[in-house]
Amino acid sequence: MILQEERAGPPRPEEDVAIRLDRIGLRYEEKIVLSDCSVDCKRGHVTGIIGLSGAGKSTILRVINGLRHPDAGAVYINGDDITGWDEHELIEMRKKMGFAFQYSALFDSMTIAENVAYPLWEHTTMTRAQIDKRVSDTLEALGLSEVEGSLPGELSGGMQKRAGFARAIVNDPEIILFDEPTSGLDPIMTHIIVTTIKDIQSRLKATSVVVSHDLRSIYALSDTVAMLFEGTIIESGTVAEIRRSPNPIVQQFLQGSELGPIPL
Ligand SMILES: Nc1ncnc2c1ncn2[C@@H]1O[C@H](COP(=O)(O)OP(=O)(O)O)[C@@H](O)[C@H]1O
Ligand SMILES: [Mg+2]
Fold first, then answer.
1. What residues flank ion ligand 2 with Cβ within 5 A?
2. I need a surface site. Which of 15, 215, 223, 262 has the fewest CB within 10 A?
3. What is the pLDDT of residue 28?
4. Does residue 235 sit in helix, strand or coil?
5. Which parts of the chain register pLDDT below 70?
6. Which of 87, 95, 89, 81 is nearest to 10 (CA)?
7. Is the minimum distance from the CB of 67 to ligand 1 under 6 angstroms?
């Protein structure tokens, strides 16, 4: 009986789990980055992942997106384990995901409108008229209509971030991954970006994962917060639950204190 259960593998995640990382292990050469790392992201929710610089937050997003293949464990997207998928299947999957990169990653020589249109030309069979309409609607929703003809280098950091978001969501993704959406921004632009992500979330009803070490933004955005430390999720819960976590590592991180169990 036990053998049969083993052959059947772990059960599929429940319907309301859009993303499940199940005991992920991942190393870069000698360095272990993720180890026995598990997290569930609920459909329609924002999951915030916090952790020190170098903790592996960006790596988690790359694993979810299929850009990095884990050495151990399973990655379920909408119930399917994607770890065995080939590049063709992953490309199909990525059409339903938007990835807002930390450094916007816009094409310098293309206008904002051309940048935002790019995924539609690449991944859909939409006509030029349909693309133009979708791009202008998306730019308008993000307050970027006036800069549609500008080059990325002509915009402020906050505007570039928003243009990166526009490109990530233009395809109406089911899942949106935000890597450090507020890093390097002043408090006012941070507020605008947080509000923008909330707007996107309520408009698209997507499942979002936001990784950041900016606690205020994470508190403002997240339905669930998970803390990554030494390659694994050591705590997860609502914002209130995380804030009153009895785990001294979590408390030290949240308080930004140099005193505590975290090795400096
Ligand atoms: N391409 C790579 N090759 C080797 N090491 C890497 C690579 N990408 C990331 N790392 C290492 O993996 C660890 C986690 O990186 P990352 O996921 O970028 O952390 P975070 O986003 O939390 O700052 C870091 O120690 C980093 O140096
Ligand atoms: Mg990172």
1. 57-58
2. 15
3. 94
4. strand
5. 1-9
6. 81
7. no
Residue 148 amino acid letter: E
Instruction: Determine the residue type at 79.
Output: G
pLDDT for position 56: 95
CB 160 within 8 A of CB 101: no
Choose among 210, 167, 239, 211: nearest CA to 46.
210
Residue linked to tokens 């785990």: 247
Q: What is the pLDDT of residue 118?
A: 95
Output the CA angle 60-33-26, nearest 5 degrees: 70
79 CA to centre of ligand 1 in angstroms: 27
| Runs of H (alpha helix) within the chain | 2-8, 57-64, 87-94, 112-123, 128-141, 157-169, 187-204, 215-221, 239-243, 248-255
Is 28 a pocket residue for ligand 1 (Cβ < 6 Å)? yes
State residue 8's pLDDT score.
64
The pLDDT value recorded for residue 3 is: 55
Structure tokens at 134: 């979708």
Instruction: Dig out the tokens for 67 from the structure.
Output: 């850009």
Phi and psi at 177, nearest 5°, equal -110, 125
pLDDT digits (tens, 9 = 90+) for 85-108: 999 999 999 999 999 998 888 999
Which amino acid, 114?
E
Residue 27 has a pLDDT of 96
- Give the pTM: 0.93
Measured from the Cα of 179, ligand 1's closest atom is 21
